[in-house]
Amino acid sequence: MKYGRKILEPVAGYVPGEQPTDLNVIKLNTNENPYPPSPRVVEALHALGTEAMRRYPDPTASAFRRECAKRHGLPGADWIIAGNGMDELLSLAIRTFVDPDEKVLAPYPTYSLYDVLCKLHGCEMVSVDLDGCFQLPEAFHTTPAKLCLLARPNAPSGVSVPRAEVERLCRSFPGIVVIDEAYVDFGDDHCMDFPERFGNAVVMRTFSKSFSLAGMRIGIAVARPEIINEFMKMKDSYNMSAFSEAAALAAVQDYDYMRGNVERVRATRGRLFAELTALGFDIPESQSNFLLARWNGTPTAREIFERLKTRGIYVRYFALRGLESALRITVGTDEQCGALVHALGEIVKK
Ligand SMILES: Cc1ncc(COP(=O)(O)O)c(C=O)c1O
Asked: 200, 226, 255 — which closes off a domain?
């Protein structure tokens, strides 16, 4: 006897990267930040006490949203919704703006959760292949849909399409354009000004990467108030815990701390890029905290992935079309990346 809805039968569900319980492994597989969050976040959490556990949290995280509005120069907190990680906001976007049987447009390859969310909602995701440089082909601009999901920088390529391309999309696309800026703090530019310029633009950010808070589950979506109102209707009453709200507020208040960690990751990214390239990997220029290292030799990328794992080094391998010969490697500390390069040197040596 099957009790699940029919719609769930063909859905495999999202497969997240492994979270090994052994804390001694070198974990470069889920794009977490290798550095700890701001000490002010830790202080804010310690300060909460049992009252914060006993009472319900602020249902809309208003103090955090006000602080974000100030930080990003937005007209007010009503331009922002906070969520239990960006994944919740992505799911909300599909449920808020797309009817089952309508279409969602996304490039391929991209964040694989998009497709899972569409299937769970019963809508179709139309995937348009990126070109050989991971840029948008012309067909992307001419495919109509109700909602477009565009990760910028994209995953797993790490490549950002030019701002002008996103601008063109916002002007011509007939529905909502979600610009997923999960990794944007590691890049050179952003699109946070788009919601004020375009009525259909929604910019999303996560605190899982640059702010080192993946375990706290914090994300924001920024759009015009009439769009945020629709999101608000759809969300759970208390979609963030009191602890996430307090951590989120302290994190944005200590923005410079985050920037310091990001600069360290960017510097390591440059060194890792050079070292992996010297080993023979082919890597597109990354605007994020990971590198897509393509390998056309022996052993295969999958074998390299397995051998690294036996040495306690976790990277990500996707058995997906076009990514069969690639490893996605999160930029860790210099020490972690040094250990990775050393191991790779032994594994791929002729
Ligand atoms: C492109 C992209 N968007 C969104 C997310 C989700 O972020 P969060 O941890 O806030 O749910 C991720 C996480 O890996 C991601 O890679």
From this structure: 255
Q: What pLDDT is stored for residue 101 in this prediction? A: 87
Question: Residue 350: which pLDDT band, with cuts at 50, 70 and 90?
Answer: low
Q: Are residues 56 and 165 in the same domain?
A: yes
**Is the shortest distance between the CB of 87 and ligand 1 below 6 Å?**
yes
Instruction: Based on the fold, state whether residues 90 and 79 are members of the same structural domain.
Output: yes
**How many domains are there within the chain?**
2
Helix ranges (H only) for the chain are 39-46, 49-54, 62-71, 86-97, 113-121, 138-142, 163-172, 194-197, 225-234, 242-253, 255-279, 301-310, 334-348
346 CA to centre of ligand 1 in angstroms:
32
Atom of ligand 1 nearest to the CA of 88: 11
User: Is residue 160 pLDDT above 80, yes or no?
Assistant: yes
Residue (of 106, 182, 184, 89) closest to 146 by Cα position: 106
Pocket test for ligand 1, best of 19, 29, 87 (most atoms within 8 A of CB): 87
For the cut 80, the answer to whether the pLDDT of residue 42 exceeds it is yes
* Residue where a domain terminates, one of 233, 255, 277: 255
| C-alpha of residue 277 to centroid of ligand 1, in Å | 27
Question: Which structural domain, as residue segments, surrounds residue 182?
Answer: 39-255
Q: Is residue 218 part of a domain?
A: yes
Per-residue confidence (pLDDT) for residue 104, from 0 to 100: 98
Confidence class for position 99, pLDDT limits 50, 70, 90: very high
Ligand 1 atom with the smallest distance to the CA of 110 is 1
Whether 213 and 291 share a structural domain: no
Indicate if ligand 1 lies below 6 Å from the C-beta of 330: no
Q: What is the pTM of this model?
A: 0.97
Mean predicted confidence (pLDDT) in 264-274: 98
Centre of ligand 1 to C-alpha 87, Å, is: 6
CA distances from 6 to 23, 39, 200 (A): 39, 47, 33
- DSSP secondary-structure letter at 135? -
Amino acid at 183: Y
State residue 48's pLDDT score. Answer: 95
Supply the pLDDT for residue 151: 98
